[in-house]
């Protein structure tokens, strides 16, 4: 799967103001529900919070990959948000997180879900991509950074 197939401007936000893990997940859930009528905000938030209870999705270097499986979803949906300032997200390196790349996948997708996560993690391991995302002023800037 190509990253451009799952990212869209209406699910991309820059410099979101928040100060907690729960609040950023609420913001992400709201963005998902606003732009995808087949998903409910509460369902998304519950799925993301359940995953975080299993262990933080903060992978280090200021990046988190929150993700969850949703019933009734027929395709992978990505929500990309940057925060200002970076927030404590219990990341593996204990550093604050400012890039949140969230994946919502159909409940029955297991193998595809893991492949998509690996593809996103690989893209976010590129230092130039990360710099461009952190410099982004608009959703278009984030999408351009991910496409490079």
UniProtKB/TrEMBL annotation:
GO biological process terms, semicolon-separated: phosphoenolpyruvate-dependent sugar phosphotransferase system
InterPro entries, A to Z: PTrfase/Anion_transptr, PTS_EIIA_type-2_dom, PTS_Nitro_regul, PTS_SugarTrans_NitroReg
Domain PTS EIIA type-2 per the UniProt entry, residue ranges: 5-148
Single GO molecular function: protein kinase activator activity
Pfam families attached to this UniProt entry: PTS_EIIA_2 (PF00359)
Organism domain of life: Bacteria
PROSITE patterns found in the cross-reference section: PTS_EIIA_TYPE_2 (PS51094), PTS_EIIA_TYPE_2_HIS (PS00372)
Matches recorded under CDD domains: PTS_IIA_fru
Protein name listed in UniProt: PTS IIA-like nitrogen-regulatory protein PtsN
Organism of origin: Salinimonas sediminis
């Amino acid at each position: 799967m190509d990253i451009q197939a799952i990212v869209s401007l209406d699910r991309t936000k820059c410099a979101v103001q928040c100060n907690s893990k729960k609040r950023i997940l609420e913001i992400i859930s709201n963005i998902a529900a606003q732009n995808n009528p087949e998903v409910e905000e509460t369902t998304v938030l519950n799925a993301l919070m359940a995953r975080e209870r299993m262990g933080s999705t903060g992978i280090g270097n200021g990046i988190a990959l929150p993700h969850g499986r949703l019933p009734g979803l027929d395709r992978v949906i990505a929500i990309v948000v940057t925060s200002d300032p970076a927030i404590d997200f219990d990341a593996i390196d204990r550093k604050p997180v400012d890039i949140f790349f969230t994946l919502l996948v159909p409940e029955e997708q297991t193998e595809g879900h893991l492949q998509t996560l690996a593809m996103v993690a690989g893209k976010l391991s590129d230092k130039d991509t990360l710099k461009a995302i952190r410099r982004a002023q608009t959703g278009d800037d984030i999408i351009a950074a991910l496409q490079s």
